[in-house]
Amino acid sequence: MATPTPTPGIHHVTCIAGDPQRNMDFWVETLGLRLVKRSINQDDPGTYHFFFADAEGTPGTSMTFFPWEDLPQGKVGSGQVSRTAFRVPEGSLDYWEDRFDEYDVDYDARVERFGETVLPFRDPDGLPIELVEVEIPDDEPTVPWTEFVPEESAIRGFHSVTLWLADPHPTQDLLRTMGLEEVGTEQAQGDTPGDERTRFAASGSVGKYVDVLPTIQGGRQGHGTVHHVAFQTPTDEDQAEMRKAVRGQGLNPTNQINRHWFRSVYFREFGGVLFELATSEPGYDSDEPLDSLGERLVLPGKFEGRREEIEAGLPDVTVPRAESVEADD
């Protein structure tokens, strides 16, 4: 079987939230990410789909949410992405702890992992998130958004995701097929004694790590859990090669689906985590000017003809603006 072009890393992570305004306020104002797309769940058009990213929506920076208010609280367990980690510049965790104190964010003590300092915290829905201090290279592809957080502390895209799996070995083989390399193993902190965290690295510089941890702890999808993780397959050809390789592993990927800002293939990996393969193009600025991303509700393709109906069924939300927040203070 031909070897597919290795994935550069994570493209986006999509999660489940509750209240849409609370979700918006936290990810834009508290964490300082830019709303680069305000749209709908294309499989459930009565629900928003928010995309939070760096200033330009660079692949590897977008955390996205379906705010399904009627779902119950979820529980992280086996067969899920248990943690999503973001990169922040070295020396910025003091700033983030002070900010979390100011905004009453639930966070834990720092830990060391594979030689890096990690600050674990949770969003208002209980979603487990981490900030990891890294050295930002001169050729860094991400573009920090600085309306709420200064450049020297701003989030710079994904660092990693952690997968909780009952049997990690088939998934580890899959990650190798996708072009990730095993780069280390260490005792997992805060998990069951004896568990080992195994790290895999992709070829890119953003969102390059996937950590795998064995666990049989049960979970359920709901508020505060990850819906799926998407990996970059930059071109259609890359994606077709990867889809073929995934099928060769005995998995059942979908045909390509047009998601308007990227083209996608979905499959459940061996442990039950929903994986997506996503192209780099056409990108979030393909249907809006870069300087006005996220300012209006964008309805892809066939949904535009239903705008009046769809808008009437969605709750009103307001995107935080620094000048508005300052005026309120």
Description:
It is built from six helices and 16 strands. By secondary structure, it is an alpha+beta fold. It has one domain (10-328): Roll (2,3-Dihydroxybiphenyl 1,2-Dioxygenase, domain 1). The chain has an eight-stranded mixed sheet with strand order 2-3-4-1-13-16-15-14. An eight-stranded mixed sheet has the order 6-7-8-5-9-12-11-10, with helices on one face. A hairpin with a 5-residue loop joins strand 15 (263-268) and strand 16. The chain is globular. The mean pLDDT is 94.
From the structure above, extract its key features.
alpha+beta, 2,3-Dihydroxybiphenyl 1,2-Dioxygenase, domain 1, 6 helices, 16 strands, 329 residues, eight-stranded mixed sheet
Précis, in short:
This protein has 329 residues and is of the alpha+beta class.
Please render the helix and strand layout as text:
Layout: E1 10-17, H1 20-30, E2 34-41, E3 44-53, E4 62-67, E5 80-89, H2 93-103, E6 111-113, E7 116-122, E8 128-134, E9 158-165, H3 168-177, E10 181-187, E11 196-201, E12 209-214, E13 225-232, H4 236-248, E14 257-258, E15 263-268, E16 274-278, H5 307-313, H6 322-328
Domain VOC: 9-134, 157-280
Region (Disordered): 309-329
Protein name: Glyoxalase family protein
Number of helices: 6
Overall average residue pLDDT: 94
The largest beta-sheet arranges its strands as 2-3-4-1-13-16-15-14
Q: What's the total count of β strands?
A: 16
Helix amount: 10-25%
User: What's the number of domains?
Assistant: 1
Largest sheet: 8 strands, mixed
Which class of secondary structure composition applies to the elements?
Answer: alpha+beta
User: What is the second-level CATH architecture?
Assistant: Roll
Task: Compute the separation of the termini in Å.
Answer: 61 Å
Q: Which of globular, elongated, flat, extended, rod-shaped describes the shape?
A: globular
